[in-house]
């Protein structure tokens, strides 16, 4: 379908750049609110690879600080998310077909710890992890803290993005998994204004 057509029309590095520019412009036209252009788009080979971006950005802006990643709804996410959230390889091969070591740290100098929370209890009830997240933030004030929330999963999970307004701190990095884009661009723009990154698969 669409991917086959793109591949057939792409034969050089410049063609790829043109394709990415074209796709970016079309996405921006959909995602931006009228009269605004406050988005930067980044592409990745998979949704799990997108998990690396908050880690990369945090390490670039605060290279000498430890990082704590907090990830909710872990059973709703890809099987490689646990490794990716701790800056480790989650597969045996990269997107170029090169062999890599599953579970090995991507960058030896990066110090990342992680906490994962389930979306539901054993009886199927949606869990609220707010108190646990707040406790972790207080315990790790010297860390950069990446909080990965899920908003609009396939089973209807919508983590409370109201946490963003309740939790303040220069060391907090919000990352919202928008899953398959089940919400309006208005919500996306509100989250971006709150300095969140958004992942869409």
Description:
By secondary structure, the protein is of the alpha/beta class. The protein is built from 8 helices and 5 strands, in the order H-H-H-H-E-H-E-H-E-H-E-H-E. It has a 5-stranded parallel β-sheet, with helices on both faces. Helix 5 (81-84) links the parallel strand 1 and strand 2.
Offer a concise description of the structure.
This protein has 201 residues and is of the alpha/beta class.
Tell me the helix content: 25-40%
Structural class determined from secondary elements: alpha/beta
Q: State the strand order across the main sheet.
A: 2-1-3-4-5
Instruction: Give the rounded overall mean pLDDT.
Output: 85
Assess the beta-strand content as a share of residues.
5-15%
By DSSP, the count of extended strands is: 5
| Backbone CA Rg | 18 Å
| End-to-end gap | 18 Å
Number of helices, counting only DSSP H or I runs of 4 residues or more: 8
Index terms:
201 residues, 33% helix, 5 strands, 13% strand, globular, 5-stranded parallel sheet, alpha/beta, single chain
